[in-house]
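Today's session is about reading a structure prediction critically. Students often jump straight to the picture, but the first step is always the sequence itself: look for stretches that repeat, for charged clusters, for runs of hydrophobic residues. Only then move on to the predicted structure, which in these notes is written as discrete structure tokens rather than atom positions. Here is the chain we will use throughout the hour.
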Amino acid sequence: MNLKNEWNEKWVTQPGLMLITIVIWSIFIGLCIKAGALMFTTIYSFFKPIVAQDLYEGLNLYGLRNQEIGYYIGLVSLLVVIACLKAYIFYLMIRIFLTINLNHPFSKKVSNLISEIASFAIQTGILIIFTSASLKWLIKRGFEIPSLGGFTGGAFEYLLMGALIYAIARVFKRGVEIQSENELTI
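Below is the predicted structure for this chain, in token form.
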């Protein structure tokens, strides 16, 4: 079955899941645009320093760029990695929704994808904590840096989300085992 037929069949049999998939796609595209724009403007700021005044949506790291370029590169790299991790989490969600079949929801592939989302959510939370600590460290040393809460998000939310998804992954893994046992019994 080709991809087009598979896509059409899913729209007929699982329209709710496909609508959610479209919403997740739009969030994924938005996160990719954010990460790409931040990456592009950062690289562009090396050639034209004034660009650092508005890297993305008003993020002004011009002062840090002029004072210490190494710290500037480190901080912006952390922000780009966080944005990329968030986008990757949504990419994994898209893969789940395109893979899952509601008639036989438990599969090893979906179980592995859910576990991977939990892992990346926890990694994102830890990276946000590290970025916040780095930011505080830079501010203590007298660098003028605006609040980055809107660019990083809350670490606690990602850690909590990772823990919850990990619990769901464990339940899903058990569901796969039970489904396999039932298929062997029949």
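Discussion point for the tutorial: Residues 15-47 form the longest helix (33 residues).
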